[in-house]
Each structure stands twice: as structure tokens, then as C-alpha cells.
Amino acid sequence: MTQSFDIAVIGATGTVGETLVQILEERDFPVANLHLLASVESAGHSVPFRGKNVRVREVDEFDFGKVQIVFFAAGPAITRSYASRATAAGCAVIDLSGGLPVEQAPNVVPEINASLLDALKKPYQVASPSPSATALAVAIAPLRGLLEVVRVNVTACLAVSSQGREGVAELARQTAELLNVRPMEPRFFDRQMAFNLLAQVGTPDAQGHVPLEKRLVTELRELLALPLLKISVSCIQAPVFFGDSFSVSLQTGGAIDLAAVNAALNAAPGIELVEAGDYPTAVGDAVGQDVVYIGRVRAGIDDPAELNLWITSDNVRKGAALNAVQVAELLIKDPM
């Protein structure tokens, strides 16, 4: 008889939490009892799972001794508040918020560094990185043995779902107001988001960097096992509901062999390489899919050691929820 597991999802009413529950069902994860948890404001809502509506309960009142695996799909403050309770109860913790230090919970993307799980002790604590880091690492990791990557320059065009359900609702509201020629006052974003690009995602520090940019740099270095890699990143907010897109330039130590690069990308797990002359888009290709799409693979205009890529991925599904479930699938291979 196949072992089944009692699971808790914290942040179950958010975009990532709901998608995580959906993927647990799609992939037939061996769930015995599913406990959906959220803040007191969201308690009482229901989320569908296997033909039933599972009621969301308040996380503060939950007994973590009831489950073997906990997904933290809320903010980092929630993770820091409850992860120790879950671990003390013997639960495996999979954190999607970036709330735990890497020394405590290493970032894992199964296509890249699943072997890290072999060294972990129970109860497991694992981090699923930010969607941007997941997509970029999946795309760049297959090239490490082929290229000497010296520097990575990234312009990340992030969907409003990176800001949660509120960001999605605000873009929808602004779009409706403008299309109907009605006065539009920004609420969630500090200015017009619809039909616009915002030059930063979040509040910058004294040096002008936003938390998502700093988190991306740290996580990408960790995932690629290149702690000294120079990374320049600018996160901009795009008027797209779901699906992040990235313009990426890799500075390397020698001339680029494009045929070898394309062969490596084409053979790598988790990647869909679009043929030359075409390119993928978030809406037309990535949304709802379980792979990272790559196109426009080309050398620099005047620098043969420069490699340019266009990358797009479903930030909520592939970048967050699916990666976390894949990590859980690896953990349950050993008896919990």
C-alpha cells in the first residue's frame, strides 16, 4: 500500500496557495488529509480539492502535530512566526516566502540541485526560491559546463501576480476603468499600472535596490553554486496578470558556440527551446505550463563572448507552486 501524507498549506487563499493545492491534485500527490490555513481574515473560505470544498482555517489555532508536510505560501513574516512550531512538531517545512536563512533551509530546484536534499536531516527544512530565480536558474544551469559565465545582466518584467491577489485585482480594475473612459485613481500601486511599465517592484533601499532584486541575486548565486558570480538585475512591473519575462545577457570567458548552446538547452529538463526566428511570450506560451520557455538565443552584436536570451515562465505555477510540490515529491521518496 502506498504511503499517504497529511499536508498543510499556509496561505491557501492566495494565488500561489490555491495553485499549489491544484497541482497537488493534478499530480496525484499522496494526500491523506489536507489542511488549508490562512490569516483570520481569510479563515472560513473554501478551496476545491478532489471534488470537495476544503474549508480554510486560522493558522494560529492549528496543531502542526496533525501533519507531516507544511507548505508556507504566505509572506516571510508568517514563515518566521510558525516554521519553528512546525519543525518542533516533526513536520517537513517547504518555504516559498524566502523567510528562512539559507543555512537553515537551502533553496532547491529539482532540475538543478536535487542532490542537496540527500544531506538534509529530518525534520526537513527546504526553501523553494522566488519564481524569478527558479526560471533563471533552470535556463542558465545547463550552460555552466559549456560556458565560463563571468557576469549575468537581467531585466525582469514581472507580472502583477508577483504582488499577490491584490496586484491582479488592481490591474483588472484599472484596465476596466480606463477602457470605459472613467476616472481612474491608483490604489494598490502608487501610479497607473494598466497600459504602463513601472520601473521598480517594491520599495528601494538607500542604494536604490528593491528586496526582490536582492533576493534574486542571492538565490541565483546559490542555485548555480557560483557564490562570486556578478549579477546585475532590474525588476520592473509589467501590465501582465501572470507570467514573468526576462531579457538576459551572459558575459562569458570566450566566444559563444551557438550550436552547442542550443543543444544544451534543448536537452535540459524543464526547458522548452523555441526555434530560431520565433520567440515565446508569457500569455501565448508560458501561462499554465510546467516548463521555462527560451527564445532569441544569440551572441552579442559586437561581442562574441556575450550570450543573449529571452526567457518566460508562469511565475505562479512553474516558478512557485510546481517547484514546491516537486520538492515534496522528492522528500517523500524516503520514509517521513
Explain this structure.
The protein is built from nine helices and 13 strands. With 336 residues, it is an alpha/beta fold. The protein has two domains: 5-128 and 320-331, 3-Layer(aba) Sandwich (Rossmann fold); 133-315, 2-Layer Sandwich (Dihydrodipicolinate Reductase, domain 2), CATH 3.30.360.10. Strand 1 (5-10), helix 1 (15-26) and strand 2 form a beta-alpha-beta unit. The longest helix is centred in the middle third of the chain and has 15 residues, at 165-179. The model has no long low-confidence stretch (mean pLDDT 95).
Summarize the model shown:
The chain is an alpha/beta fold. It has helices at 15-26, 76-88, 110-113, 131-140, 165-179, 211-224, 258-267, 282-286, 317-331, and strands at residues 5-10, 31-38, 46-49, 52-58, 69-72, 92-95, 125-127, 149-158, 230-237, 244-252, 271-273, 292-299, 306-313.
